[in-house]
Amino acid sequence: MGLLDTLLGHAGEKDITGLHAEFGPLLAKDEALQRAFGFVRDLIVFTDRRMIIVDKQGVTGKKTAYLSIPYRAIVMYSIETAGHFDLDSDLRIWVSGQAEPITRALGRGAGVRDIIAILAQATR
């Protein structure tokens, strides 16, 4: 993922080997990181059991929120792709027991299709 793509908010795949230090304490025994996609400061990380949405907050990004969504809890998801004049794609995930979907703006790029493919495989 290039600097320009990062600044524009385009989804780009991250190398998971560099994420083990941050995510090691958050993972269950025998849970493995599979893929990760980065946006300007945020991440969506996929393990063999769940999806983790990482939201870096504040000016420095030191405050971080981790939202863990087990694949079995995902009822439905949708993607609204970017058009000619849109700058981002929107991902919506409906979780069992919640009326409103979790919504994230993903940006343009191949990461959107990869994320949908992972969700399709994990929630089947």
Automatic annotation (TrEMBL):
One of the Pfam families matching this protein, by short name: bPH_1
Matches recorded under InterPro entries: PHb, PHb_sf
Domain (Bacterial Pleckstrin homology): residue spans on this chain: 2-122
Top-level lineage group: Bacteria
Coiled-coil ranges from the UniProt annotation: none
Protein known as: PH domain-containing protein
